[in-house]
Design brief:
GO terms for molecular function: oxidoreductase activity, acting on NAD(P)H. By secondary structure, the protein is an alpha+beta fold. It contains ten helices and 22 strands. It has two domains: 176 residues, FAD/NAD(P)-binding domain (3-Layer(bba) Sandwich); 102 residues, Polyamine Oxidase, Chain A, domain 2, CATH 3.90.660.10. The protein has a six-stranded mixed β-sheet, with helices on both faces. Bound molecules: flavin-adenine dinucleotide.
């Protein structure tokens, strides 16, 4: 069986891994992503080639495991054993919520390395910079055809789409759009899925800067203290590395994101950069470069009503929607649970 997965984020990686475990070497997994790197919203950005060890986690910051959840705990333990994640040191942090049943982990090599590692375990073929715009039923056989704007790329027995629902509805044409249009219930439920918007600004410092003059590694900013900034981290220190090169990541508030949803990320990014220096006047100004990112679809504020982990649009050939739009929450742990449900369904249909 050949399966195409659209999206190279953590949901696609986890589904790939579970499919590999379920079906062994007999399954071929092919991934397409419009981005230039693996990770999706679990992404790590790097400074220029002159300062290659300076990086920031631009989207997800740390991964939270629920101790009492035996199912997801196994995934966390595997990543710990593989030296991909390690506990977040909560000394010198401000505003992280405490919960006796939760443990937080950081990824020392960058959060995108978690996704990369899971894909490697899954042995999936990766195709980047491929913006999928069409999924069609083949007229010749029982397969699905996947295309970009200018050409048909590949065909498979099954396609799993893991991109945020608003992007599915706005970007994907062909049989997939017709199926959604015909399925009134799914169509209405998909239209209910909503995401927040956030801007992220990363400051990369050259190795010559040996301190940022900041006493904390993570700071959740209270909305009464600043209306623009909501999350700040000295990113290398957050990842348990206190050596230069230093980097700082800032996320804006959801309210700020909503107000500027259609604005240019560079213009808004410059504005946010100034807000960072106003809020932290002691921060050195000698940065090496700056990363600006608009997460138009940041975290799910209203998920697919059933929170079922997936939606099956067609059984044969299998066409499934998955990802955090269908999960109980918009985070890594919920993506694990959603992926398990999706693969359980695929196994059931294939037996
Ligand atoms: C700012 C921010 C902070 C967060 N903080 C945390 C946190 O601290 N802890 C936590 O657990 N979670 C956090 N999250 C949420 C977490 O990142 C997501 O829940 C998770 O990464 C979702 O993964 P996914 O694979 O479902 O989707 P995505 O990661 O969005 O993957 C979808 C992929 O599809 C690709 N794609 C989209 N359209 C197309 C197309 N037409 N063709 C081809 N490819 C396409 C995208 O490029 C993307 O790579 C945060 C997210 C953001 C944005």
């Amino acid at each position: 069986m050949k399966v195409i997965l659209i999206g190279a984020g953590i949901s696609s990686a986890l589904i790939s891994l579970l499919l590999r475990r379920q079906f062994g070497p007999g399954i071929k997994l092919v991934v397409f992503d419009k981005g230039r790197s693996i990770g999706g919203r679990m992404t790590t950005s790097y400074d220029s080639e002159d300062n290659p060890h300076c990086s920031v986690d631009t989207g997800a910051q740390y991964l939270t495991s629920t101790k009492s959840n035996g199912v997801t705990a196994k995934f966390f333990q595997q990543l710990i054993d593989d030296h991909v994640i390690e506990p977040l040191d909560k000394t010198n942090t401000i505003g992280i919520r405490e919960n006796a049943d939760k443990v937080d982990y950081v990824a020392p090599r960058g959060i995108s390395f978690v996704v990369r590692h899971v894909f490697e375990q899954a042995v999936a073929e990766m195709n980047l910079s491929k913006h999928i715009t069409k999924i069609d039923f083949s007229s010749e056989n029982d397969k699905l055809l996947v295309s970009t704007n200018d050409r048909q790329l590949d065909e498979a027995d099954a396609v799993i789409v893991t991109i945020p629902v608003p992007q599915i509805l706005s970007q994907l044409k062909g049989s997939i759009a017709e199926l959604i249009d015909r399925n009134q219930e799914a169509k209405e439920k998909l239209a209910q899925v909503k995401y927040s918007t956030r801007f992220a600004v990363g400051l990369f410092y050259p190795p010559s800067i040996t301190t940022l003059n900041i006493p904390w590694r993570i700071y959740y900013v209270d909305k009464n203290d600043n209306e623009y900034l909501r999350f700040l981290a000295v990113d290398n220190a957050k990842r348990n590395n206190n050596e230069p090169p230093f980097s700082l990541i800032a996320h804006t508030s959801v309210e700020f994101g909503a107000k500027h949803i259609d604005d240019d990320k560079m213009i808004i990014g410059e504005e946010i950069k100034e807000k960072i220096f106003q809020f932290l006047p002691q921060l050195p100004r000698q940065i090496s470069s700056t990363k600006y990112h608009k997460w138009k679809y940041s975290q799910v504020t209203q998920s697919y009503p059933d929170k079922s982990g997936y939606v099956l649009l067609n059984e044969q050939p299998l066409l499934m929607l998955a990802g955090d739009s269908f999960a109980a929450e918009s985070n890594f742990e919920a993506c694990i649970e959603a992926a398990i449900e999706a693969v359980k369904k695929i196994r059931e249909l294939s037996s």
